[in-house]
Design brief:
5-stranded antiparallel beta sheet; alpha+beta; 10 strands; 3-stranded antiparallel beta sheet; 6 helices
Amino acid sequence: MKKSLSAQLSITLVSLILGLALAAQFKNVQRVGGSVSLQRTQELTRQVQKLEQENEALEARIQEYEKRIKEFENAVQSEGQSNKLIYEELERTRMLAGLVDVQGPGVVVTVNVKYVSEWGQDAIVQNVRYDDLLKLVNELNAAGAEAIAINDERIIATTEIRNAGDYIVINTNRYSTPFEIKAIGNPDTLEAALKLLGGVADDLGVYLQINIRRVDNIRIPKYRGTFQYKFAKPVQDANARS
């Protein structure tokens, strides 16, 4: 009887120990499994947020491309308007390069030698120099002149103004006094810049005759020379090729 009771107690104790071990093991597995599930959820959430951001960026690009496609479609449908815009841009570029005749309000500056009487004879105080003309041209450019010509020689980026003996060369052509400088722009601004006290015209007026007059409509001819580019080439935009 005692042996039977001892055996039952032993079996009960072993069963209890095994039960506690199994319960602890199950609880540990639950804890690990729950932790892994939470990490996986957080990872999936981040991936979803990233995909949503990428989707928004792609939608913005699609809208941009659709807008450009619409513009091209409108241009094709209204070919006349498209050609007009291209022509206007071409004319603007030619104006900037000085390749078309232009007209508008501005000022005309006449530069001539000044005479003084010495021993009963008239003598020239000083001849007009190339840098005298350059000073006037620079002042007009600084005042916003949109087109300038000297003796109807259009002044462009490649124009040279230099002495050549008794002459001044402008666009490879020789000229002597008097010089007439035409400038198109705001007449008030151009005139005020030239007539500034102590300015260019004031300084040159000491030894030259400088006459400045406003004109409502000035006509300036286009540049009559030719352009030759043997060494300069346009830079190719890498982004345009990609």
